[in-house]
Amino acid sequence: MNSLMSTFLLLQCISTLVFTAISTPPDDPIKCVSGNSDCTVTNSYGAFPDRSTCRAADVAYPTTEAELISIVAAATKARRKMRVTTRYSHSITKLVCTDGTEGLFISTKFLNHTVRADGEAMTLTVESGVTLRQLIAEAAKVGLALPYAPYWWGLTVGGMMGTGAHGSSLWGKGSAVHDHVTEIRMVSPGSVNDGFAKVRVLSKTTTPNEFNAAKVSLGVLGVISQVTFTLQPMFKRSIRYVMKNDSDFGDQAVTFGKKHEFADFVWLPSQGKVVYRMDDRVPVNTSGNGLFDLLPFRSQLSAALAIIRSSEETQERFRDANGKCVGATLISSTLFASSFGLTNNGIIFTGYPVTGSQNRMMSSGSCLDSLQDGLITACPWDSRIKSEFFHQTTFSVPLTQVKSFITDIKSLVKIERKSLCGLELYYGILMRYVTSSPAYLGKETEALDFDLTYYRAKDPLTPRLYEDFIEEIEQIALFKYNALPHWGKNRNLAFDGVIKKYKNAPAFLKVKESYDPTGLFSTEWTDQILGIKGNATIVKDGCALEGLCICSEDAHCAPTKGYLCRPGKVYKEARVCTRVSGISVIQSVSY
């Protein structure tokens, strides 16, 4: 498909993105053959990093804490493996999977109630299956606001706590949701004397060690039943997006977060541009009724999504870098011109700044607004249709190292400017600020979180256009700058040895041993990422193509298609799958 046709189709698709307002609701991630038995679980994208199928003998859907206790007790008595699942299952990593086929999924889908709201104490207690959208709305009912949160509101409270989900801020207690929690109720396996289940009430004042372990738990301590948040009086935000040249971005990235409370960036490295989000708190009596309804989180016509995916598959097949770059420029300029979905009154955008209440400005996800339309429309990544299918590589680089890291990425772009257009087709590199957290598996220092989303082939053995550039960025961050991977978003290679990066890991593992000594809530995957047993990487032919391993020999790439294992271009210690042209005989090389 030539670049002109790609541009035309993308224009059509963007128009549907802007104007489509309804959507078929996402599918339930759990499917069972018979009632609630013989079940599988997937994530909202339809595939885990290793493309495995996760099975369990049964799924349970508790509706109250009492039912949850009964379920955990029965499974503990029977020595069954358990894992918690959520309504939308948004984690890319295998955190919902249990081992084998005889385990139990415990879904929090119906643990979705508000327990109590205390306007005077400015606290809100909810069950763990409550979505971020519900949490924001319930707080607003009593004139309160959660100060920081992820931008996608389809996450659940338990899911956010399990993975360390965050927004963007260096201010106050920082942008991680778990650092605005005052109490956690956790249901874990118990002894015979406990009735095989134990309910613990955790807080900073009464159980500080256990509380700091439970704030980012990866689901290995038990099931979070309820969470109490400390909130703030409702306030408004004033947002302005500004696009600039990225020539001084290394310096700006380090300081910008101190100037604006909710600052973030969308970096377009192949275009040499950055979109700065100038986002500040303003008094609640400031005029304005703005709404943030992020365009990429709106529903889209399934037919348009299929066109976009087919276009990208064709660009990959014919190595059409120009087509990708044309499309990327079109998408980024359209998003910027459309203010990324900001409106001044909930309907139209009339100009900056856009001012609105925190509950209307902090998060969005209108593709979840559900009308059953037979999949005529859907969320852009819905796996039931031909839609977006991508990898996500997300990590936090210490703020002291950010300038050097940005310089390294720019050095790669200088080698081949078209190399990162593929990232820009997925809206660019989203960059959000995070702070150090007392949570044992939370962030270790002030950092900038880089979120890279990029094409994933349906065939795991198909190499990607310029995949070596993205692989090198991934390895530069993780190994040169010791970046921390997001627990819910990365490919396997990011988690090899990751637990060594957390100074409080021994304290976390001590709590885990106390709460679940027989490992009923642990799995092969959690044991690997926690450094208990085995490695997260999977070494086999083609493993580096999907981030299951870092290549050490050509067979880990795609030698028959000309992709060989080679050193990095800027970071020589990296090992990446590089397309080597002009070779008549491919010889296997080991590194």
Automatic annotation (TrEMBL):
Coiled coil: none
GO molecular-function term, one example from the UniProt record: L-gulonolactone oxidase activity
GO terms classed as biological process: L-ascorbic acid biosynthetic process
Keywords, sorted A to Z: Ascorbate biosynthesis, FAD, Flavoprotein, Oxidoreductase, Signal
Cofactor: FAD
Signal sequence coordinates: 1-20
Any one cellular-component term (Gene Ontology): membrane
Domain called FAD-binding PCMH-type: residue spans: 52-234
Enzyme class: oxidoreductase
Family, as annotated: Belongs to the oxygen-dependent FAD-linked oxidoreductase family.
Record protein name field: L-gulonolactone oxidase
Species this chain originates from: Brassica campestris
Species classification: Eukaryota, Viridiplantae, Streptophyta, Embryophyta, Tracheophyta
